[in-house]
Design goal:
The protein has 333 residues and is mainly alpha-helical. The chain has 14 helices and five strands. It folds into two domains: 217 residues, HUPs (Rossmann fold); 82 residues, Tyrosyl-Transfer RNA Synthetase (Orthogonal Bundle). The protein has a three-stranded parallel sheet with strand order 1-2-3. A two-stranded parallel sheet has the order 4-5. Tryptophan binds next to strand 1, helix 8 and strand 4.
Length: 333
């Protein structure tokens, strides 16, 4: 028997989702929704912690991300989608949790540490950014999530969540909060077209709504082996982004193995390889792109899916807060 698990996961709506998201999390969610109760949260509050001066960007991308979820085939009857800012109980719970966390512990959170460095905040670090792991603990525990599928980089967040859960249960002598387990996907991270981390802002991402033309341009500019100048030169397969993608998306493993051998020996040109990848990626993206275009014609439908899920989540959040308030002796009547 499967244990009864509650899955909670989410994305910051800072741009439409891309192939890296598909490989790293969306594919996994399509499987998880068959087995478990699954919540998928659009983390607009978290996105604002470093985009608070650009509310229109976040607003626009809530819909884009919602479109992506439905276009890849997540089923609103199986997965409950919700918008973080519409669950005020998350903010309330965050406030209670903040007492249980020290500033120095937050400063030591490896994920936050790198992000602070990346963003050059220095002395102007917003307090909201520093404490977003606490808010993330509230995201997870507000639905009593027990399974959190995330990338490796989010492990410190789950660790910090569980520290908060244990402190809360110990201090308030209760067991209302449950610890969560990180579900780390075993697929390696898909690199961007230039071989570095894929992200919309780096301009190296292939989006789920990309046209054949977009895909072609991006694949043609992909990083291969800079020393593979002439077709007859032997080429490197490791770190060659075209091969990394073929490994993930080309179902004909035998032919890929042959292509690799040929490439390493010399005599196989980048363009030929890239043409193959363009066909394969377009075949993969085309149905998603078409569903996306269909759905985009009816943004109200997409918004209603998000709002329906939010309404369901509100009920669950209220129940959790009832338990939390009771444990904290805040259940005045
Ligand atoms: N921090 C996650 C990211 O940047 C998004 C997120 C917010 C999340 N709250 C969450 C993920 C709760 C899992 C659980 O991708």
């Amino acid at each position: 028997m499967e244990q009864k698990q509650i899955v909670l996961t989410g994305d910051r709506p800072t741009g439409p989702l891309h192939l890296g998201h598909y490989v790293g999390s969306l594919a996994n969610r399509l499987e998880l929704e068959k087995k478990y109760k699954q919540y998928v949260m659009i983390a607009d509050v978290q996105a604002l912690t470093d985009n608070f001066e650009h509310p229109e960007k976040i607003r626009r991308n809530v819909l884009e991300v919602g479109l992506d979820y439905l276009a890849v085939g997540l089923d609103p009857d199986k997965t409950t989608f919700f918008i973080q800012s519409m669950i005020p109980q998350i903010a309330e719970l965050t406030m209670f949790y903040l007492n249980l966390v020290t500033v120095s512990r937050l400063e030591r959170n490896p994920t936050v540490k790198t992000e602070i460095k990346d963003r050059n905040f220095e002395r102007s670090l917003p307090a909201g950014f520093l404490m977003y792991p606490v808010s993330q603990a509230a995201d997870i525990t507000i639905v009593k999530g027990t399974l959190v599928p995330v990338g490796e980089d989010q492990l410190p967040m789950i660790e910090q969540t569980n520290e908060i859960v244990r402190s809360f249960n110990r201090i308030y002598k209760t067991d209302v909060l449950h610890e969560a387990k990180a579900l780390i996907s075993n697929v390696p991270r898909l690199p961007g077209t230039d071989g570095t981390k894929m992200s919309k802002s780096a301009g190296n991402a292939i989006s789920l709504g990309d046209s054949l033309d977009d895909i072609s341009k991006k694949v043609m500019s992909m990083y291969t082996d800079p020393d593979h100048v002439r077709v007859e030169d032997p080429g490197k397969v490791e770190g060659n982004v075209v091969f990394t993608y073929l490994d993930v998306f080309d179902s004909n493993k035998q032919e890929v193995a042959q292509l690799k051998a040929e490439y390493q020996k010399g005599g196989l040109g980048d363009v030929k390889l890239k043409r193959r990848l363009i066909d394969i990626l377009d075949a993969f993206i085309a149905p998603i792109r078409e569903r996306r275009e269909q759905l985009a014609k009816d943004p109200n439908y997409v918004m209603n899916v998000l709002l329906d899920g939010t309404k369901k989540t509100l009920h669950v959040a209220e129940q959790t807060m009832y338990d939390v308030r009771r444990a904290m002796l805040l259940d005045y009547k």
